[in-house]
Amino acid sequence: QRPVDAASIARDAAQAFRAPAEGKGIDLRLELLPSLGTVIADPERVDLAFANLVGNAVKYTPAGGRIAISAERRDGVIRYAVSDNGPGVPLELRQAIFEKFFRRPGATTPGAGLGLFIAKEIVEAHGGKIGVESEPGAGSTFWFELPAAEE
User: Fold this and answer.
1) Stretch 21-44: mean pLDDT, rounded?
2) Helices (H), 24-139
3) Torsion angle of alpha carbons 21, 4, 40, 52, nearest 10°?
4) What's the rounded Cα separation, in Å, for the pair 115 and 51?
5) pLDDT in tens, 36-54
6) Which of 7, 107, 108, 142 has CA 20 to 30 A from 87's CA?
7) At 112, is the secondary structure helix, strand, or coil?
8) Exposed, middle or buried by CB within 10 Å (0-12, 13-18, 19+), for 11?
9) Which of 13, 90, 11 is nearest to 56 (CA)?
C-alpha cells in the first residue's frame, strides 16, 4: 500500500464502466469534491473493489437510469460511493449481501456471489469500512472508506 491520488481511483472506476453504462442508456456521472488529496492504498486491489460496486450498479440499474460515482474527504478518510436508481436492497438483505456466495433470492443474472464479498475483504484489508444505504424501489448507495494519507 502506498499514497495514491484519491480522485484518480474514482476516475478510473468511472472510465472502466462508461461504455457498458452508455450501452444500457445509463447516465454515469463522476462527482468529486476538490482537494481530496491522497489515500493509502494498493490501487490495483482498490480498483477491483470499485469495479465490483460499479459493475453491480450497471447490472441492476434499469436502462435510462443513472449512476453517480463520488468521493469526499472527511475525518481522516476518503469516502467513495456508488449511487444508483436501481431496485434497491431490502433491509433484511443488507448484511447478507457482503457474505461469500450470497445470491439475491430469485436472481437471474449470472454470478458466483463473490463480488461484494471480495470488495469487503479488500476494503477491510486496507483498514477501511464498507456498507450500503438503500431505499427499496428507489436505489442504493454502496460506499467504502479508506484511510487518507497525512497531508
Assistant:
1) 93
2) 43-60, 115-125
3) 20
4) 9
5) 999 999 999 999 999 999 9
6) 7
7) coil
8) middle
9) 13
